[in-house]
UniProtKB/TrEMBL annotation:
Residues 15-24 have a biased composition (Basic and acidic residues). It comes from the Eukaryota. It comes from Trichuris suis (pig whipworm). Residues 1-34 are annotated as: Disordered. This is Uncharacterized protein.
């Protein structure tokens, strides 16, 4: 170890109490939320898969398409450039 590594190691405080340990664990357990584009791509793939299944019926297919379309609308709204006049209102 060089001098900088020794200083870093010594200067770090260990988590002494349970609250600090729980906070560290909760930070590690946070789930990553996909972006709207990622959600759309995954839902589109799920839709293709579901259409090929025997259990596919119109009601379920319509529900899945509705969710996919919602992700598509959200993705489009983020891709649309905001006009500078929209900020002046």
């Amino acid at each position: 170890m060089n001098d900088e590594e020794i200083v870093d190691f010594v200067s770090k405080k260990p988590a002494n109490n349970e609250e600090e340990q729980r906070a560290a664990e909760e930070e590690e357990e946070r789930t990553v939320v996909p972006t709207n584009s990622e959600a759309f791509a995954h839902l589109d793939g799920a839709l293709l898969l579901f259409e090929e299944q025997e259990e596919c019926d119109g009601r379920r297919l319509l529900g899945l398409k509705s969710i996919r379309d919602l992700a598509a609308r959200k993705r489009q709204s983020l891709l649309k450039q905001t006009l500078i006049t929209d900020y002046i209102k």
